[in-house]
Amino acid sequence: MPKSIYVGNIPFSTSEDDLHSLFSQYGEVISVKFIMDRETGRFRGFGFVEMDDAAAKQAIDALNGKEISGRALRINEAQERQPRPRRDY
C-alpha cells in the first residue's frame, strides 16, 4: 500500500525531478508533488512523495536531516490534514 511522506525545508532551487531521484534510491517513487501558494503560485518549500510502505520507511530513516543546498530536509510520514475552523467575515 502506498505511503505519503512529508518533505519540508526543501530548497527553492530543487525540482520535483531532483526529489524523485533522491527518493528513488530507496525504492519506487509513485509520485512527487510540490505545494504551491494559491495566491502567488510560488513554491512553498514543502511537498509530498508517495512510495510503497517499506521503501518509505527506509527513505524517511535515511533522508531526514540530510542537507541539500545548505538546508536540512525535514522528512516524516504525512499526517491527515486537520479540518480548519471556518472563518466568518
UniProtKB/TrEMBL annotation:
PROSITE patterns reported in the protein's UniProt record: RRM (PS50102)
Native source species: Humidesulfovibrio mexicanus
Protein name: RNA recognition motif. (A.k.a. RRM, RBD, or RNP domain)
Domain RRM: 3-80
InterPro entries: Nucleotide-bd_a/b_plait_sf, RBD_domain_sf, RRM2_NsCP33-like, RRM_dom, SLIRP/GR-RBP-like
Cross-referenced PANTHER family: HETEROGENEOUS NUCLEAR RIBONUCLEOPROTEIN 87F-RELATED
Source domain of life: Bacteria
Keywords noted in UniProt: RNA-binding
UniProt-listed Pfam families: RRM_1
Molecular function GO terms recorded: RNA binding
Lineage summary: Bacteria, Pseudomonadati, Thermodesulfobacteriota, Desulfovibrionia, Desulfovibrionales
